[in-house]
Design brief:
This protein is of the alpha+beta class. The protein has 3 domains: about 60 residues; about 190 residues, no CATH class; about 300 residues, no CATH class. Helices cover about 35% and strands about 10% of the residues. It contains 17 helices and 12 strands. The strands form 3 sheets. The protein has a 7-stranded mixed barrel. The two termini are about 15 Å apart.
Length: about 600
């Protein structure tokens, strides 16, 4: 009897232990425990911005692929990211106007998209489904996109992760690119959790909306597309657009001048209750949107356009933070510019927010107009036909909060340090880059100009917030002596669209591998040896190019980049132990009771 009593206690203890282990396994994160998989995710690997990463593209017929890049069709290849090998992934060129610009220059340095699950839905890079590899065209600084994403993320705006990567193709140097997290499923899960909302990339078909569109865009021939003159909006205080005297430099300014291009739905205006009236939103949905989801978005746009229930239809804080950074970097190629594109719209439970995208023409470089206009771009201009921006000025409380966040951004984000750190990180790689669109000297000048621009822009915005500098375009036109002087700056030094779509100086780009169009190894120094300009960097052009099994984060990775079966997540082992203890307890109890 005594033995049986103790056995019963042992069995009860085993059952209790197994239940506790099971609960721990199921609720570990709620108890403050981190899942092993999250610690080994893509966020801390490819998007570790403290280093330049290596991406090797391995492809049988690369030349044939390059010849068909303008078709933007996926082709199979293998990629090796920091030594980890991923077979049979998809690659294609990306871009709209930049795609044809590269071809027109006789270059092969296209931007690319790599989709890990293109041919195998189970494949990813540590949870990442797609990356964009930006070729840094129209950017002598090589960091306009990078700087903006860094600032957006640091200021609490959900935005893409990014890092610099040196690309090789079949073992030959290709050049320095910016790796950018695609705004798709992995981004949504990272930013909003597994139960995320709906994602859209509104874009007019006449202005680069969708693959291959916008290639014939001519900045000198900007006009309102027929039938897309825009819908009616509630009257808001703003300057009246003067189309007869339109100044292209105004494309990166506010002041209501941005009423030339873009359809009503891309401007996020309410049109009517028919989803068919919003083709540039719903045809560009990135998630599977239901009928109720479409109705929900339209209802939110109606409230937004009439400036009612704004707290219910907007993520107020996130949108204000977005516009603080967005307006600081003066990006005319955006929602607030005349093209009215290059943004993502996120909706969850009827609340809207903006996700930033594509800032290679920011810092006043969309048209490369007068530097004084960009440096002093007014922070309080009202785009009356753009309700997602105009609502900020519909109530003094919203405007005050916008100003407070703008001041917080200037006081907490060390812009100069981001620039300086990036320069130290990439300068050697830029010098060795055989395909860059500018010379190394133009890169140096571009970075210096960016530093100066950001310093002067900060001074101007601080003055506008303090009231010592006019904060609207109309007031600035009447008080030009109060503006920050930027006459010594040449925005084209940072690279603009208006000078042929390339970097600062005419003919400044180099074709892949040099001007003969062939890939070459790094340049040799006078003694005949390979230049050591990038040798000091641990992940430079000469980094590991083999395809070995890779030890990372305590896990062994096979050539397809997935964890080996013998080293799966420790949580699986915990579950197995829990189940084994439970079964053992049941068997022992049953045996002794018999």
């Amino acid at each position: 009897m005594s033995t049986r009593k103790y056995i019963d206690r042992v069995c009860i203890a085993a059952v209790v232990l197994s239940l506790l282990l099971t609960l721990l396994f199921m609720n570990g994160e709620a108890l403050g425990l981190q899942a092993a998989g999250k610690e080994a995710g893509y966020e801390n690997r490819l998007f570790d911005s403290s280093r330049v990463h290596t991406i090797e593209i391995v492809m049988d017929d690369w030349d044939a692929f390059i010849e068909t890049c303008q078709n933007e069709e996926y082709s199979p290849c293998s990629v090796v990211i920091d030594g980890e090998h991923y077979k049979n992934v998809g690659i294609r060129a990306k871009g709209n106007t930049s795609l044809t610009s590269v071809a027109a220059m006789g270059s092969s340095r296209y931007s690319f998209k790599i989709e890990f699950d293109q041919y195998d839905s189970t494949k990813s890079y540590h949870g990442l489904d797609k990356i964009s590899l930006n070729n840094l065209i129209q950017d002598n600084t090589m960091m306009k996109d990078y700087l903006t994403y860094q600032m957006m993320n640091a200021f609490g705006v959900p935005s893409s992760l990014s890092s610099f990567a040196y690309i090789t193709v079949n073992g030959e140097d290709w050049g320095l690119y910016l790796a950018v997290e695609a705004v798709e499923e992995a981004f949504l899960q990272r930013s909003y959790g597994s139960d995320y909302g709906e994602l859209y990339k509104p874009d007019s078909m006449s202005f680069g909306g969708g693959r291959g569109n916008g290639r014939d865009f001519d900045i000198n021939g900007l006009a309102i597309p027929p039938g897309q003159e825009g819908g009616d909006m509630p009257a808001r205080p703003a300057q009246t657009p003067d189309l007869d005297n339109f100044d292209p430099s105004s494309m990166f300014r506010g002041g209501g001048r941005g009423e030339m291009g873009g359809s009503s739905d891309v401007k996020l205006q309410y049109i009517d209750d028919d989803p068919a009236s919003y083709p540039n939103i719903f045809d560009n949905a990135k998630t599977d949107v239901s009928d109720s989801g479409r109705e929900r978005l339209i209802n939110s746009l109606e409230a937004l356009s009439s400036y009612t229930d704004l707290d219910g239809v907007l993520n107020i804080e996130t949108v204000l933070r977005y516009f603080a950074v967005h307006n600081f970097v003066v990006n005319g190629d955006s929602y607030t510019g005349d093209m009215v594109h290059n943004y993502y719209l996120y909706e969850e439970d009827g609340r809207l927010s903006m996700i930033p995208w594509d800032y290679n023409l920011a810092f006043g470089t969309f048209t490369g107009g007068a530097a004084v206009s960009a440096v002093n771009a007014a922070i309080d201009d009202v785009l009356s036909d753009r309700p997602m921006q105009a609502w900020i000025f519909s109530d003094e409380a919203y405007t005050r909060r916008y100003h407070a966040l703008y001041a917080e951004f200037l006081n907490t984000i060390d812009i100069e340090k981001i620039i300086d750190d990036a320069y130290v990180l990439i300068a050697g790689y830029v010098e060795e880059d055989p395909t860059k669109f500018c010379t190394y000297e133009e890169f140096e000048t571009g970075v210096q100009t960016m530093r100066a621009f950001c310093t002067l822009r900060r001074e101007s915005v601080q003055g506008q917030l303090a009231g010592t500098i006019p904060s609207t375009s109309e007031q600035q036109a009447a008080e030009q002596d109060a503006l920050v002087n930027a006459d010594h700056l040449n925005l084209s030094d940072m690279g603009t669209m208006s000078n042929g779509g390339i970097g600062g100086g005419p003919g400044g780009f180099e074709t892949p591998g040099g001007r003969d169009g062939q890939a070459h190894p790094p340049a040799e120094d006078e003694a005949g040896g390979a230049s050591d300009a990038v040798d000091a960097a641990p992940s430079g052009p000469d980094a590991q190019k083999e395809f070995p099994f890779k030890e990372q984060g305590g896990l062994a990775f096979s050539p397809d980049g997935q964890p080996d079966a013998e080293t799966r997540q420790p949580a699986v082992l915990l579950l197995g132990v829990s189940v084994a203890v439970l079964l053992a307890g049941i068997l022992i109890a049953g045996r002794f009771r018999r």
